[in-house]
Amino acid sequence: MPGADGEDEEEEMPLSLRLSIADTLTLGNATCGFMAVYFTTTGILIPHLTGSDDSAGMARHSAATAVILMLCAAVFDLFDGLVARKLRSSPMGAELDNLSDLISFGLAPAYFVLVYGMVADDAHQRVAALGAIVVLLAVVLRLARFSCVTMKDGMFQGMPSPFGALTVVSIVLLELPFVATLLAILGTAWLMVSRVEYPKPRGRLAVAMLSWIVLSMGLLAAWAFDAPSGQLLLQTGCALQLVMGAVIPLFATARRVNNFRDNRREARAAQLP
Known about the structure:
By secondary structure, the protein is an all-alpha fold. The protein has helices at 2-17, 21-50, 55-86, 93-120, 125-148, 161-173, 178-193, 204-224, 230-271, and strands at residues 155-157, 197-199. A two-stranded antiparallel ribbon has the order 1-2.
């Protein structure tokens, strides 16, 4: 009967809209990304535009807070996948994950790059805006491809967006010359849309990633509170992030070359009488 069908639909609708524990973690990811944009605006951009007397100190604290929030978003992103596999995820899980990643690892780091260009030198604003757009579009393409392309189990195609976002902000915090900074940011954006394979953070790799995130938070806190050698510690951590971003593709490329050679050898051996 029509009335019964309508009642069934009303009973089923709330079930599809219920949030799972994994979805709640994903929303925490989105919240951290939004708050990172907030602190970048209120603590770095606005003091710079208004010429605040303590703009340097505010910028250091706010930059550290914004990056720590991006790191917290990466933690939420790490655990929502683990929880979803162990328990369950709602029908909205995949869409929520992509939308949250776009905020935390696309918008937030791109905006960080944009504000960096405005604060560093007014002459570089337009070029920094171009770099920020490239970062944002790279994450959009990376997430869209993730939804459409099926990879072998345990692997990503292209640098994962959380890792890419942390690499981008590390490049900015290193305070390299502007041209070198821009080239490194563009290189990171290219890696995100490349076909280089990256392992998924599972098991020991997930523990190692979580440990690295906690260590990075400590380095940022030491820098924010002007601890002894805080600047050196931060630069060391940022440099290590860049080294990892460069080394992983090299290992992946070397593995693909070795696999290609092994396949050719097997094909030749099969052709021999």
